């Protein structure tokens, strides 16, 4: 008797990787019988030997005939008919050894196919085996009850114990340490703070924590992944269709050649020899092995493809259409900058806005609250909160009436400049006001994914010839994103109907892939040859109609999937063509009487093993991504985490530059300059020095050479020069007001530093930091 299963973990243990000898029993018995016949033959007992070989042939013929008849009944015509005819022929001409060798050959192919499919689908089976079935739910009386998963409702408070699988999507009620590798493919554990969203299927790698359910079990992330995995394992492998296409020409050719050999020579033996060497294991087994292996590998990279036919099409794709929001961009607004009225305090404005927005469900409200918490601001509890849809939220914070949203009335001059700057930059503006007027504004952006540009380059290298961005956003913003990521064309202000029309037009010229994440993308995803949905919520319309779903919120996994699909398809086609080519040469020799059935059977056995082993190559290889050592990944994570502090200093640099530009004679200019210089020397320059000393040398291997980071080192030199330039002014300046002759050079240094540092951070995040979390495959 085993131990009781944990409440939130699978009731069935995940199987190990031990060899199940029952899967190899038929092949083992057939081989032993053939060897027994060989021993009897060598002992001079030729009659019993022939009888054993004939029995082996019949044993293989019966199931093969039944399978072929079932296919013909379903009006399916495939290459396996040749194997049946070859077995029948050997019995008719009494070439029992040849029949026995064919039987072993077919059994070997089936055993290898079973092994490859079991290995290839191991990750998909693991998803099904570890699905949670129960959950611990807190009761109103303060107790804990174990309930079936289908009884968990939205709003229930659950307890997730150490080692448990998170049963439903929810919000953590206290800090949690999670292993998200099954859902996202990331092998490192992650820390989630109270209030953060957690997907079902991840494993609690730390102490127990409370979870408030935000979705029921059927609509949660893991349920969606399991449904896709079940479909992926249940559907027919795509390469069977590829094999049937080859069979359309190969089977008639084989039968014609066998008939001609019999007709011209008058020897039925030659026709049987042709059928023996034509037995099509390369088509029956090698090509499905390659594609099923590809399905497994993309699943391990965080991409679930519904069926092999979609993987085959993905490997042939030439055109890619991408939605912008949530696909090329993060899809979640981020506070890019906080601008305040003259004499205002940036942290205080953000704190007031976030305090009011705590009770709002709006996506912009979540961005403000998240930004305030990241900066360590202590939020106050708001009172008298009211929300007017489309206009904003009003509430009382610490006795002050604060409004967050649109700006009411005629804006002052500084606010007009902020509005113009935001429009030019494609940013959204959230105004923060009190009874006296606007206090400041928070500029929000939907940042481009750090891995987007690198992914676009990899997609081009993988064979995609045309990349088009389709979006409903404004033309200016759409063009800015398109230039950043490097797509060929951009279509802005595109309605769902227009997206469908565009996909249909592109699909008429080449195999087309559409990538999107929203409900409005669902029609276009359904229209494309291959629709790919970002994120596996399992309940959105886009995931339901898509042919593939990215279960991790990383665009680079799409490039992985395309590269693996092309590689698997190339291996499948290679295995089929090489196997058939060798078989045709042997068939011609057999038709000419140069290859008797027994020798042909042994030769075909060698051909089959060759192409099947070649097909197993699809279990690895094909990825262009560079492998990054674990210690380098740790450095990338560390320095990427420091960018938030650098951006905080950068915002102060811009504010100080604006102050010097608009009010150079103000008494607060010099103190502001001294403070920003202090923060630059305390945070930014040590960050740059650490990257030069540790990170850049570590990246030389993964990036190919030391020269790969040389331009970034030049950026550090320029940043240091500009900081020193500001420091030089301050060292030669007594406290007081700025002199008019100092202002132009200070502005050049401040605005120059703002531009150089912003560009430098973006380049690091795109070229270096996007390498960091790319884990989950075998690395080959």
UniProtKB/TrEMBL annotation:
Organism, scientific name: Micromonospora globbae
Pfam families noted in UniProt: E1-E2_ATPase (PF00122), Hemerythrin (PF01814), Hydrolase (PF00702)
Domain Hemerythrin-like positions: 636-770
P-type ATPase A domain mapped to chain residues: 131-230
PROSITE patterns according to UniProt: ATPASE_E1_E2 (PS00154)
Family from the record: Belongs to the cation transport ATPase (P-type) (TC 3.A.3) family. Type IB subfamily.
Recorded topology in the membrane: Multi-pass membrane protein
Transmembrane segments: 24-44, 50-69, 76-93, 99-116, 246-265, 271-292, 571-592
Subcellular location as annotated: Cell membrane
CDD domains: Hr-like
Protein name (record): Heavy metal translocating P-type ATPase
Gene3D superfamilies per UniProt: Calcium-transporting ATPase, cytoplasmic domain N, Calcium-transporting ATPase, cytoplasmic transduction domain A, HAD superfamily/HAD-like, nmb1532 protein domain like
Keywords: ATP-binding, Cell membrane, Membrane, Metal-binding, Nucleotide-binding, Translocase, Transmembrane, Transmembrane helix
């Amino acid at each position: 008797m085993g131990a009781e299963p944990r409440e939130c973990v699978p009731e069935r243990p995940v199987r190990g990787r031990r060899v199940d000898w029952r899967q190899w029993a038929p092949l083992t018995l057939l081989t032993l019988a053939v060897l027994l016949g060989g021993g009897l033959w060598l002992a001079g007992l030729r009659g019993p030997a022939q009888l054993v070989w004939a029995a082996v042939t019949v044993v293989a013929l019966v199931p093969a005939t039944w399978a072929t008849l079932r296919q013909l009944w379903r009006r399916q015509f495939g290459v396996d008919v040749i194997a049946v005819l070859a077995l029948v022929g050997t019995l008719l001409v009494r070439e029992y050894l040849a029949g026995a060798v064919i039987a072993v050959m077919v059994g070997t192919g089936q055993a290898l196919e079973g092994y490859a499919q079991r290995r290839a689908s191991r990750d998909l089976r693991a998803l099904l085996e570890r699905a949670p079935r129960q959950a611990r739910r807190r009761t109103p009386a303060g107790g804990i009850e174990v309930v079936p998963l289908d009884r968990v409702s939205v709003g229930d408070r659950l307890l997730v114990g150490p080692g448990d699988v998170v049963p439903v999507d929810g919000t953590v009620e206290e800090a949690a340490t999670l292993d998200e590798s099954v859902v996202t493919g990331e092998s490192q554990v992650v820390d989630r703070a109270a209030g953060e969203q957690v997907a079902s299927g991840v494993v609690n790698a730390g102490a127990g924590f409370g979870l408030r359910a935000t979705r029921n079990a059927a609509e949660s992330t893991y349920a969606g992944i399991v449904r896709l995995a079940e479909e992926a394992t249940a559907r027919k492998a795509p390469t069977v269709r590829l094999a049937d296409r080859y069979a359309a020409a190969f089977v008639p050719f084989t039968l014609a050649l066998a008939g001609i050999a019999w007709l011209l020579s008058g020897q039925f033996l030659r026709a049987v020899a042709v059928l023996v060497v034509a037995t099509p294991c390369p088509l029956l087994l090698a090509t499905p092995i390659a594609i099923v292996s590809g399905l497994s590998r993309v699943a391990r990279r965080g991409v679930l493809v519904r069926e092999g036919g979609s993987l085959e099409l993905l490997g042939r794709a030439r055109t890619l259409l991408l939605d912008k929001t949530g696909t090329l961009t993060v899809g979640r607004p981020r506070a890019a900058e906080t601008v305040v009225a003259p004499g205002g305090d940036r942290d205080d404005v953000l704190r007031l806005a976030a305090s009011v927005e705590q009770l709002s469900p709006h996506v912009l409200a979540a961005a403000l609250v998240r930004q305030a918490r990241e900066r360590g601001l202590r939020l106050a509890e708001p009172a008298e909160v009211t929300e007017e849809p489309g206009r904003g939220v009003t509430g009382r914070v610490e006795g002050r009436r604060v409004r967050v949203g649109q700006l009411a009335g005629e804006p002052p001059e500084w606010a007009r400049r902020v509005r113009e700057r935001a429009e030019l930059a494609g940013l959204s503006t959230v105004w923060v006001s009190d009874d006296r007027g606007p206090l400041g504004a928070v500029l929000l952006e939907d940042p481009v994914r750090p891995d987007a540009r690198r992914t676009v380059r990899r997609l081009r290298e993988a064979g995609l010839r045309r990349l088009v961005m389709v979006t409903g956003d404004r033309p200016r913003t759409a063009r800015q994103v398109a230039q950043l990521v490097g797509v060929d064309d951009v279509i802005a202000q595109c309605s769902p109907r227009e997206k469908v029309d565009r996909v249909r037009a592109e699909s008429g010229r080449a195999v087309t892939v559409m990538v999107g994440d929203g409900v409005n993308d669902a029609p276009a995803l359904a229209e494309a040859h291959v629709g790919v949905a970002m994120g596996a919520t399992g309940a959105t319309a886009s995931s339901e109609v898509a042919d593939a779903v990215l279960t991790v919120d990383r665009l680079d996994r799409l490039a992985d999937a395309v590269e693996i699909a092309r590689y698997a398809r190339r291996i499948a086609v290679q295995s089929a063509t090489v196997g058939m080519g060798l078989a045709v040469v042997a068939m011609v020799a057999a038709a000419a009487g140069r290859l008797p059935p027994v020798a042909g059977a042994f030769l075909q056995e060698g051909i089959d093993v060759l192409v099947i082993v070649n097909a197993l190559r699809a279990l690895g290889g094909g990825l262009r991504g560079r492998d990054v050592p674990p210690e380098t990944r740790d450095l990338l994570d560390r320095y990427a985490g420091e960018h938030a502090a650098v951006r905080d200093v950068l915002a102060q640099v811009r504010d100080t530059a604006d102050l010097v530009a608009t009010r150079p004679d103000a008494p607060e200019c010099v103190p502001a300059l001294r403070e920003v210089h202090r923060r630059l020397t305390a945070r930014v320059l040590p960050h740059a020095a650490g990257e030069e000393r540790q990170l850049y040398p570590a990246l030389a291997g993964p990036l190919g050479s030391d020269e790969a980071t040389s331009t970034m080192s030049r950026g550090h030199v320029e940043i240091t020069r500009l900081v020193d330039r500001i420091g030089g002014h301050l060292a030669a300046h007594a406290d007081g007001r700025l002199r008019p002759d100092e202002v132009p050079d200070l502005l050049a240094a401040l605005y120059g530093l703002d531009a150089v540092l912003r560009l430098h951070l973006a380049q690091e995040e795109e070229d270096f930091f996007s390498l960091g979390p790319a884990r989950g495959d075998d690395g080959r």
